[in-house]
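Lab notebook, bench 4. The sequencing result for the construct came back, and we need a structural model before the next group meeting so we can plan mutations. Quick request posted to the team channel:

Model the 3D structure of this chain.
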Amino acid sequence: MKILSVNVGLPREVSWQGKLVTTGIFKEPVKGPVMLRTLNLEGDRQADLTVHGGVTKAVYAYPSEHYGYWRTELPGVDLPWSMFGENFTTEGLLEEAVCIGDRFRVGETEVMVTEPRMPCYKLGIKFGRADIIKRFLASRRTGFYFAVVREGMVVAGAPIELIGRAQQEISVADITRLYAFEKDDLKSLRRAIEVEALPESWKGYFQHQLDKQVG
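Done. Here's the predicted structure in token form:
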């Protein structure tokens, strides 16, 4: 497991459907080491902190393995590393195998998996097509967010080492499945709510799903 590309970018204004929108989704690969801090990588910033960023969404990782799928799905579209707005383009970390609460050593840093990425309209801006949002979620190739447990330098090519697994083995793919595809899986919903590392917003959403079905 390793990082293939470290990507950063500052928010910029773009025109979308007749409006000016500020977005941080445009990122570029960085050569050389970059400092990873509690809220983001140096040289990187999120635009709308109500839905992006914060301690639980400090770093967005996207598996390089998914790029082949998207090249087939979107023929003729240029898909360089960072196309999905990810900070880390990774190798060897897939949503089905990575659990919420898993801890990894990456370079000098330690990070913890918190949640899958749910697409918003800014992904549509990046691709220049609104249908990518539904297609992204339907593909279940969401990538996932890290919280930063220990700050330090990271660099493309650095190994990613699993150093701690969560007690409740709920994968990133499980969270996406419960959110979008199998909302009536009561047993898994109850398990997900017990996952300590899962952000409170997710637990509240799943509790609401449970209450609707049980109540």
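The first strand starts at residue 2 and ends at 8.
Will bring this to the meeting.
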